[in-house]
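User: Fold this; tokens only.

Assistant: Input:
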Amino acid sequence: MLKLGAYGFLRFSLPILPEASHILAPMMMTLSLIAVIYIGVVALVQTDMKKLVAYSSIAHMGFVTLGLFTFNSIATQGAIVQMISHGFISGAMFLCIGVVYDRMHTRLIADYGGVVNVMPRFAALFVLFSMANCGLPATSGFVGEFMVILGAVQFNFWIGLLAATALIFGAAYSLWMVKRVIFGEITNPEVKKMPDLNAREFFILGVLAIAVIAMGLYPAPFTDAMQTSVADLLQHMHQHAPSLAP
């Protein structure tokens, strides 16, 4: 549902109302930076895993709107890549939380710890998705964020610099959650009773892991497919809003 709003901007606001989009672009960039920075800080203090991932999703959507309203080709492509990547990563993260909730019936980070000792396969996949969530290179989370930051820097260096701070917050809340949930000693006796992934769970999370890594290593099929459409959109906007012309 988060990505549906970004699709609305891409499909309706920008092509139908290019001048209005240009006039309101400073406001949209400001709101995007607030989402990226402030919501990243909010995610950092969450005690519930599902809330943490939900807030991190809002921060990632800030990248999408920032990329769309720079009216820059590489940033716009990065925003679309980020939407696709977020579908893989966010879905995988929520599935991982559902897996442990099904076993423990709690989403509180404090109720876990040392999960890697009893669920090694789950731990490996959870760490992968968490790293992708904070934009680790060679994962799909890196590609979109890097393209948006690169396009934002071309538009305005300081906007790009502020957007890049999201990488710091993303690493902070992702690593903090992984440290407390996956690693360390088992402090809750209930954790010792948790079985590792069954075949169905491993297959679903494995497919998502392959998608995250494949998109991170070779994003060309996605960027090549959207390049012409993005160029046509920006050309249309430049024609109908002359102030956007470089």
